[in-house]
Amino acid sequence: MTSGRRVLPLIALAIAGCATVPSVADRAFASGDYAAAAAAYEEALRTNPRARRDATLCLRLGIAYARPGTPAHDPERAISVLKDVAARFPKGIEAAQASLLVPGLEYEKVLTAELAAGQARIKSLEVGLAAARDQGRGLEAAAKATSEQVQRLRASLADKEVQLRRVREELEQLKRIDLQRAP
What we know:
Layout lengths: L1 H30 L2 H14 L7 H12 L8 H14 L4 H42 L5 H42 L2
Helix pairs in contact: 1-2, 2-3, 3-4, 3-5, 4-5, 5-6
């Protein structure tokens, strides 16, 4: 009986040690420190074999990376993690939640790339516009065409920013729903 009493504290200590990293990650996640949560979840996945079988932990890692406006925001990594959740836990609620987030993140990625390309194009056109204006009156027609193109690109860029903002808001709503459902 005495040896059984000695083993129980050791088992409890081992379980507590395994639970430390995920619980630290969960606290960081709940407090909105997604960078710390992502790092702690990654550490748990690296060091704790049971963590790889925890669908909620994996889903929260994906959400931590999906959260825009945070240092952890990494849509590529979020998509990868969330697709992995959907593939490894196909029958769980986490798979459904992950599958809902992936299209929005993929669309955000496309819009972000288009936004960056649009911004680069605008800068390029503004430089071209300045050069055309320096050449004088003979190039006024070219300057006008470039200016119109800049305006169209700005309008397009504004549309992309509105779309991106809407996608991010939808992602936020989905994340809030996911967080409310989390055990």
